[in-house]
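Suppose you are handed only these lines of text.
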Amino acid sequence: MHNQSISELGQALRDKKISSVELTQYFLDRIKRHASLNSFITVTEELALQQAQAADQLLASGQARALTGIPLAQKDIFCMNGVKTTCGSKMLDNFIAPYDATVIKQFNAAGAVTLGKLNMDEFAMGSSNETSFYGAVQNPWNTDTVPGGSSGGSAAAVAARLTPAASGTDTGGSIRQPAALCGITGLKPTYGRISRYGMIAYASSLDQGGPMARSAEDAALLLQVMAGFDEKDSTSADQPVPDYLAELNKPLQGLKIGLPQEFFTADLDSDIAAAVETAVAEYKKLGAEVKDVSLPNLKLAIPAYYVIASAECSANLSRFDGVRFGYRCDNPEDLTDLYTRSRGEAFGQEVKRRILMGTYALSAGYYDAYYLKAQKVRRLISNDFKQALSEVDVIMGPVSPSTAFAIGEKSGDPIQMYLSDIYTVAVNLAGLPGMSIPAGLVDNKPVGLHIIGDYFAEARLLNIAHQYQHVTDWHTQCPPGFE
Ligand code: GLN
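From them, the structure of the protein bound to glutamine can be written out as follows.
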């Protein structure tokens, strides 16, 4: 049952072959059985069974929609009314959200069931899930390795079939990189496509929620529910939401694929380069044409990203002051002591590092040299993509320079960790949509293919991913022990 697609599960529900309560219980049992992966922070068992019961009534009355009665799990960055919402931090370990994020509201309205809240890097800062207050998550493909981050719990849970699909968020790669390392399909939509309301902010000009699933078809079903304008989010895009399933089967004849030479450098593991080449060759068989393109400022993406993301996070995280909500230190001597000890005791090392870097970059004497400069670089990078996407329909390349690395391998070396995002952060700086789809195994570890499209080209990306998944079976491979 856990290997079935969302549309297959939906059909089984509508045909009354199984009830949503049974399906939900099945996944809850599986989550318990594989608790050692540490992919969940909170399992919302009681709520899930209540939602499943309500979904069964909708199904009985013939009013079911595509996700009605389907169990899903949510990254613990999305506020859920009455449910502990931690963002992977000790700061919010005691925080029960008083409202639903728009994404959660939309899933609820669609009749989906929430199995629980998924582990993640603290405040979504990280590429390995090791910065979580709740501990590292194991990659089901090799439990000594990381699942990637920051949506590491989401990727591990989907890969291990503990949930049919999940939500994630991507500020600099946090949907795509863990999707690649865990062998699942992840889509970071265009900035503004999905509401950020109730999604705890890391770097507001970059943050974007998106679906993480096993196939492009399942991702399309989730995106259909998640996407849309929201007046509660001032950067939400007022654009109609297309039918993401309608274009999945469009043939790829004449598709123009661009390969940026800057993606294929010595930093890239040669086995990953080979897997990407094999995938591109498959696209040629499907009728695509391939052309070299250039992103000349790509090498500036990591430094620009880490200045901008840190600057924005230092501003966003100032709200955690020990006064209004979240952690408060014991017996503060005065207000300054309350602020400093609450923040000092509840934020982890990586979060503190980013707040310090960001505050420095925004300070009066350094603003022009760092923050303003980084914003100018950001424009150059967007222009590079604009130029490349005027020559081709999509850009393809690697998602991550390596496959899943060992737990502990990079956690002491922030620069090495930041370089995990070398292929992903530029896409966030430009606000473009990007996808990772499974495209091979190297030493039994998954490799992702990166597909980057023009603004609001999500339907096209899903179509391109789906056509590949039609002729290959990397996306159906299951980590050994989780079959
Ligand atoms: N790894 C990147 C960072 O630490 C991206 C994280 C993300 O996309 N949330 O900032």
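What can we learn from it? The mean pLDDT is 97. The two ends are 10 Å apart (CA to CA).
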